[in-house]
Design brief:
This is Sugar O-acyltransferase, sialic acid O-acetyltransferase NeuD family. Belongs to the transferase hexapeptide repeat family. Pfam families: PglD_N. The chain is α/β, with parallel strands linked by helices and 218 residues long. It has 2 domains: 91 residues, Rossmann fold, CATH 3.40.50.20; 115 residues, Hexapeptide repeat proteins (UDP N-Acetylglucosamine Acyltransferase, domain 1), CATH 2.160.10.10. The chain has an 8-stranded mixed β-sheet with strand order 7-10-13-16-19-22-24-25, covered by helices on one side. Strand 24 and strand 25 form a beta hairpin.
Length: 218
């Protein structure tokens, strides 16, 4: 028997659970159980799904174990992903059934795509990407590992985004040009509602319209 886990039991994990449930139902895996996975258990059930500690999930009888890490902090997400890989858990990519994925799109393992996400053509995305509701990624974008899009992010074409970048709710990233993409550096933070009109260095926080540098994050 296959079993599935969503690492986390907070707000984001609770939003992901019905998406995951619908995905399995669409594959006729109605009988496969899905659990919330936590490190320390304070309750036994949330929204009709049992909560297991990580060690309980590892010990549960199964032929295959799949897990998606629904933790917002990208550094914690990376650490937990590495732990799951060491324990031979299979990364689970979750995508809402109403998403639109076009031609030649590559999405890394363990990613989570919330409802109404659109990814157009010729896009490369790294592992454990989180795209929240109503976000989109346009043509010829390259996105690194452990990147987070908050709700309503608009990433236009020919944009490159480094690992661990965070793009805030409603932010708009203008298109780059073929051969000279607009670049958002590794670990950069784009504030809520920001309008990004030029490249952003690594580990930098920007906000406003047009987006301006607030601080270095490291």
């Amino acid at each position: 028997m296959k079993i599935y886990g969503i690492y986390g039991a907070g707000g984001y994990a609770r939003e992901v659970m019905p998406i995951a449930r619908a995905q399995l139902a669409s594959r006729n895996e109605h009988e496969s159980p899905i659990y919330f996975i936590v490190d320390q258990k304070e309750e036994n059930e949330v929204n009709g799904h049992y909560i297991l500690t990580y060690s309980e999930f590892l010990a549960s009888p199964a032929t295959e174990r799949f897990i998606a890490v629904a933790i917002a902090d990208s550094n914690a997400r990376e650490s937990l992903t590495e732990k799951c890989e060491r324990d031979n858990l299979k990364a689970w990519t979750i995508s809402a059934l109403n998403n639109i994925i076009m031609d030649d799109v590559k999405i890394g393992s363990g990613s989570i795509l919330s409802p109404f996400v659109t990814i157009t053509s010729n896009v490369q995305i790294g592992k454990s990407f989180h795209a929240n509701i109503y976000s989109y990624v346009a043509h010829d974008c390259i996105i690194g590992d452990f990147v987070t899009f908050a709700p309503g992010v608009k990433c236009n074409g020919n944009v490159t985004i480094g690992d661990h970048a965070y793009i805030g709710t409603g932010a708009i990233i203008r298109p780059g040009k073929k051969g000279t993409p607009l670049t958002i550096g590794e670990g950069a933070i784009v504030g809520m509602g920001a309008i990004v009109t030029k490249s952003i260095p690594p580990n930098t926080t920007v906000f406003g319209n047009p987006a301006k540098q607030l601080s270095k994050t490291k």
